[in-house]
């Protein structure tokens, strides 16, 4: 177990780089340290590895003060993968990886067959065995990074400290290496600095968010990677979704702030089951004034509407739409210049969202993603929903298959509503 207890760190004795940091890492955990540039991530890692000494507080490993552990014992305990991989001497790859065995070899003794076997196993894990006889300075930066990782693995440490361990690697090798570290979970305590928030969220159990030398948040990736933290700490506009496969969060930056509000069209979205999430992002970026609903509060479309600040009518799950929600929907539809209905699944619970549109003959209705297909596979009402969609089409609802058709349709509606265009 690693315990960081109220540590302060400064380089010049005056300016604090880290201030009053405290946290505990349980044995075998995989912890990610994230934060903007200059937040103190590398400084924290250097302090845990004893490259830097804290000006206040203490770091303990298994109850022992880090400062009191002999160098040889510490080298058997801690393995470090640094940012920089430059090696000044012309060692072979095998020589470099075998350096990880030095803490385990008696002075004046040579490497044993077991040491060589461990080094080869580390090279096999990192895909570097093919370079074993080449000079470490003759291979690429990404290949050298994998050699440094192999050296750390050959050390067989109890704790691995990773300072951006995959920064020089292509995506396939990033995943390959992080999978190796993940397999060590439970046996080796791993603390890594990450710039890629999505990789950190996928591989780490716990994230520590640093900013200006202080811990702003610590917890599960879902608790730390929130839209609020991304905005306040990283100064980015982003949404956070949950992977349907892993349940882990992933960050999607919203590029640009969107066009100025046109004021020409107010659009109400009737969606559900995730069919409206991307559409909300696109319309929001284009600057349209949006509303949405009725949606269940556990629907991913509602989560996106809430993140983007889109007014939304909600209902609890597993029930039909209540009369007061239908009244709210009538108000929103009455204010809308256009209604977009996605190719959502329709059941008895949300059928009223479609049925209410029978009363809005004058409001342009756009059926997004439905084109000429019946969508019967998404009708769970015994055909009632498809009957309503057919009625809406017969009354002039516009079916559009993709975004280009949608933009063309919306621009046409804007021109029709512009007096200058009409003149």
Q: Would you summarize the structure shown here?
A:
The protein has 423 residues and is α/β, with parallel strands linked by helices.
Salient structural properties:
alpha/beta, Rossmann fold, 2 domains, six-stranded parallel beta sheet, 18 strands, elongated, disordered C terminus
Please tell me about this protein's structure.
It is a single chain. The protein contains 16 helices and 18 strands. It is elongated, with a radius of gyration of 29 Å. The protein is an alpha/beta fold. The chain has a six-stranded mixed β-sheet with strand order 6-7-8-3-9-10, with helices on both faces. The chain has a six-stranded parallel β-sheet with strand order 15-14-13-16-17-18, with helices on both faces. Strands 2-1-4-5 form a four-stranded antiparallel β-sheet, with helices on one face. 34% of the residues lie in helices and 23% in strands. Mean pLDDT is 85; it is low at 257-263, 372-376 and 418-423. The chain folds into two domains: 2-227, Rossmann fold (3-Layer(aba) Sandwich); 266-422, NAD(P)-binding Rossmann-like Domain (Rossmann fold, 3-Layer(aba) Sandwich), CATH 3.40.50.720. The longest helix has 15 residues, at 403-417.
């Amino acid at each position: 177990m690693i315990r960081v207890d109220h540590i302060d760190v400064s380089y010049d004795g005056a300016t604090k780089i880290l201030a009053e940091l405290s946290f505990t890492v349980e044995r075998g955990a995989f912890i990610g340290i994230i934060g903007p540039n200059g937040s103190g991530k590398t400084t924290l890692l250097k302090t845990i590895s004893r490259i830097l000494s804290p000006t206040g507080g203490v770091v303990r490993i298994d109850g022992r003060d880090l400062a009191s552990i002999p160098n040889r014992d510490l080298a058997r305990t801690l393995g470090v993968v640094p940012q920089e991989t430059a090696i000044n001497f012309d060692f072979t790859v095998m020589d470099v990886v075998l350096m990880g065995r030095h803490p385990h070899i008696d002075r004046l003794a040579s490497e044993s067959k077991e040491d060589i076997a461990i080094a080869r196993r580390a090279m096999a894990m990192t895909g570097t065995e093919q370079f074993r006889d080449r000079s470490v300075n003759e291979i690429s930066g990404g290949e050298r990074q994998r050699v440094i990782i192999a050296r750390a693995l050959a050390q067989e440490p109890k704790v691995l400290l990773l300072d951006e361990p995959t920064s020089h690697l292509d995506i396939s090798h990033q995943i390959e290496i992080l999978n190796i570290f993940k397999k060590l979970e439970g046996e080796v305590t791993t603390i890594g600095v990450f710039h890629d928030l999505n990789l950190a969220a996928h591989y780490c159990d716990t994230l520590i968010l640093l900013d200006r030398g202080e811990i702003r948040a610590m917890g599960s990736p879902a608790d730390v990677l929130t839209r609020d933290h991304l905005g306040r700490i990283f100064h980015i506009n982003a949404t956070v979704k949950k992977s349907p496969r892993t349940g882990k969060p992933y960050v999607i930056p919203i590029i640009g702030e969107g066009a100025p509000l046109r004021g020409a069209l107010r659009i109400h979205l009737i969606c559900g089951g995730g069919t409206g999430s991307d559409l909300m992002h696109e319309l929001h970026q284009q600057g349209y004034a949006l509303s949405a609903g009725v949606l269940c509060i556990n629907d991913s479309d509602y989560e996106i509407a809430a993140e983007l600040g889109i007014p939304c009518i909600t209902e609890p799950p597993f029930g039909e739409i209540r009369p007061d929600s239908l009244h709210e929907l009538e108000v929103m539809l009455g204010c809308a210049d256009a209604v977009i209905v996605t190719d959502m699944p329709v059941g008895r619970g949300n059928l009223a969202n479609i049925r209410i549109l029978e009363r809005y003959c004058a409001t342009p209705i756009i059926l997004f993603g439905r084109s000429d297909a019946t969508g019967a596979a998404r009708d769970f009402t015994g055909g009632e929903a498809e009957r309503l969609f057919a009625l809406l089409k017969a009354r002039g609802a516009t079916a559009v298959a993709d975004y280009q058709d949608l933009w063309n349709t919306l621009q046409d509606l804007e021109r029709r509503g512009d007096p200058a265009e009409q003149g």
